[in-house]
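Our consortium's second objective concerns turning raw sequence data into structural hypotheses that experimental partners can test. To show how far this objective has progressed, the report includes one record in full. It was chosen at random from the queue rather than selected for favorable results. The single chain below, 164 residues long, was entered without modification.
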Amino acid sequence: MVRYERVVDFLRHFEAAGGEQRDSVHVDELGDSLPDAKWVDMAIATFVSAMAAQDALSPHVTIAMEIFLTMRRRATAVDFKSLDDLETQLSHTPPELILYRQAALPRWDDDAFRDVTEIFAPDLQVPSRILLQEWLSDDEPGLFDRRLWLVCERGGLLAAEETG
């Protein structure tokens, strides 16, 4: 089901709904997603498209792409070396484009998140960080939930690093 024809439509909706602190859309719910593309390719293309359209948004909006990975019996860190390798580790949930206002930002510095930008850095053509999140699942005892995040904070985390 298509919720938004284009990524920019989702971004405009979020900007117009000024009270919302967080909103998200799965990549397969966007009309301009790549037909018959792999989820990782769709996630990257959607993230890059959102970054290109962000100039129309408030500078305090953080764009993130959450890529759901299969659960593991132990925390594995980065055990993929390429986008194709990453594709084999996806869960059944499509990647999700998420927009955050400052008050709703996750704590990226939490122990559950590890910056893996230097280890796994596909050319995204936009300034971003790649974070791996692993935590002991609440729903599946003995298994670790895993997510890969593409994150860009304008006027926030990245801007501070660039000036510091």
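The partners drew two points from this record. Residues 7-163 form one domain. Confidence is low (pLDDT under 50) at residues 155-164. Both points have been shared with the crystallography group to help prioritize constructs.
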